[in-house]
Every structure is written in structure tokens, then in C-alpha cells.
Amino acid sequence: MQIELIAPSEVASQCPLKSFKFYKTKEVPTNFYDINSGHLNIRTPWWDGSAIYGSNNKTLSKVRTYKDGKLKISKDGLLPHDEDGVAVSGDVRNSWAGVSVLQALFIKEHNAVCDALKREYGDLNDEDLYRHARLVTSAVIAKVHTIDWTVELLKTDTLLAAMRANWYGLLGKKFKDAFGHVGGAILGGLVGLTSPQNHGVPYSLTEEFTSVYRMHALLPDNLLLRDISAAPGPNKLPPLDEEVPMAEMIGLRGETRLSQIGFTKQMVSMGHQPSGALELFNYPMFLRDLIPQDRDGKDRPDHVDLAALEVHRDRERKVARYNEFRRGLMLIPITKWEDLTADAEAIKTLREVYGDNVEDLDLLVGLMAEKKIPGFAISETTFLIFTVMATRRLEADRFFTSYFNEETYTKKGLE
Fold this sequence. Notes:
- There is one protein chain.
- The protein is mainly α.
- It contains 18 helices and six strands.
């Protein structure tokens, strides 16, 4: 069912869109632990590599070459495209050039793993090579996420040690490489446990995890392209070549622009540009007048204001408001706006929107306004969900526990 959000008259002049239409989330019966209804996702969680492999048989088949286990990639190193200009990859809906070039990167990784396995095991056929390389590449994605990406958002020595312990255990990588998984999850790490651990509840990504992962403020409004033909010297930034509005990098338009930029220039440029801060008043303006796409990656006619839609989705899906969310995590709720932030402008704006009723504060707004722990790009509230889900994701997966072995991955693949 399609519904419409209309900006209140008193603020409509300040909104990029006076109104916009979008589809209501479908509720389905679950009969699961006294929860009468829930929401189905047409995509599987990203740690299975579905962003490059797909979440259904049709897409899985579309991305394969059916030769030596490999996936399709263009000669220019970017994703191939169909007759409508839509990229051929595991997930192309509502994408942008940055995601597209990372998909291409991991397709290259998959194909490189195929080459390595074929050299090592000449008797493996196309299907064997594909399946082993898919497992290996998906595990690489999970590992990068655990010990590299997360610790950039939580940039302290303590969290670096903690996330590495999550993967390798307190005994560390060298010990694990030499002696294998020894002890339980604490000593030997979650990866390599003898069996998955579900704690009596089937694993799923929760609505709360989706909510704290609303991190669009990390995106800039303009992409700074670097001149990769210049030789800047060691430890120096390649010179700025062009500043491209992010609106040009979205969806089908972005795919065309990316083909002009090229794989290497896009990767180098993104690697040298800092992300934005997860703070109030920092939501990218280009996302407030956005062309959404259908599940096939084709543009839909109605534009959306993603900032407004994100707040609406949490309300629609009955995710707790900020204070109630913190109570659920056994964190201290706020009693006044000054408990949340010391920013005078933020407090003034929060009062204009919510009055003095802190219980009405939307979760996303609270997460952006919340005082940050030194070294943390994310809020303490977000951090607690991260901690639970990062651990839960590894220990509930047979491919990181009972099947994390040479028989499943091959010896070379596990290395």
C-alpha cells in the first residue's frame, strides 16, 4: 500500500519536498515468541555476501560466468550492465557509485580466490570453485567488518583489542594460527567454535539493529575526486581534480558517471576523503530529495526525503523511542535535553520540535544528538546493540563455527 507524508505548513518552506509517497512496510504473521506480526525482508543480511552474489536463485545465476567459478566483471574493472543500464550484481536497488565500486572490488576478490583454488586444486569444477570462493569471500567480508571497519567507528585501543578478541580470542592470532581453536569463545574467539550458539532464540537481524545502523550522515554532499595521474610523493594526498555533487553519483545516473571516473580513481578518491560525523544538522541534503528504485534497480517516479522516511520507518515498525530504547538496554534515560547534549542550538531545536517531553524523542534523532564517548563515532546507545549483534552474528553461523574448517573452505581457502 502506498502512503504519503506531508510537511506541516509551518515548516513546508524549509523542506526540499512538500510531500512524498512511498510504500508501507508489509506486516506478516509470525507466531514467534508472542510477537503477532513482523516484517519480511527480500534481501538476506549482507555478511553472506548477498550484495555481490544475490539473495535469490535468479540473481545468483545472473552474476555468474559459469566458467572456473567466476563472477561477471567488465574489462574496465567495473560492474557490467544490462540493456536498461542497471548494474549486474547481487543487490542493485537504491545503490550509488561508492557501493557499486566496492561490489566490483569484492567480485575481483572472489575471482582471485577462484584462481588461487584452481592452481591449488586442478580437479575442482566450476561449481566447486564458485561455492568455495563464495564462502571464502563472504568470510573475508565478515572479517573486515569485525576487525577493520568497526574499529574505525570505535577508534580506541580497548575496542581494537576487543574486536580482535571477538575474532581470534584472547590468546591472539599467532596462537590460533599455530594451535587452532583452543578453549571457548573467550580464549579462542567466536570463530571456530565447535557448534553454533543460538541461546535458544533463532538468529535474525532485529529492527533495533536496523535502526541504529541508520548512518547516512557518514556520507558527504560532494565527492572529492583525486588526480591519480599526478605523483604526490610518499604520504601526500593526490591533488584534488574535481568536486562532484553526490546527486550525480546516485542510481542509474551514478553508474554512468562512474564509468567516466573509472574504478581506480573512484577507489583512491573515496579512500582519501573522510566520512561525515554522525551528528545532528549533518544529514546529506542530496538524500532529502532522492529518486528511489524498485527491486530491479529501476527508478521510481516519486522522490523521497530519506531523513523523514527513516524517522517514519522506526515509528511504523514500532521501534521504541529513544528513552524507552535506553531503558530496554538498561541504560540511564534522559530527564531533560541537557542530559542528551551540551549543544545549545541542538537543545533549542529539540524544544521546538518536542517541547519538554523527552519521552517523545525519536530514536534516530537521539542517537545523532547524544554525547559521544571519546574516540567513538557512534553513540553509546548504538554501541550496545553493535556489541550484542557483532558477537551474535558470528556465534550463530555454522560457517564460522562447526563448518569453519579445511573440509568446508579447503585448506588454501581457509588460509
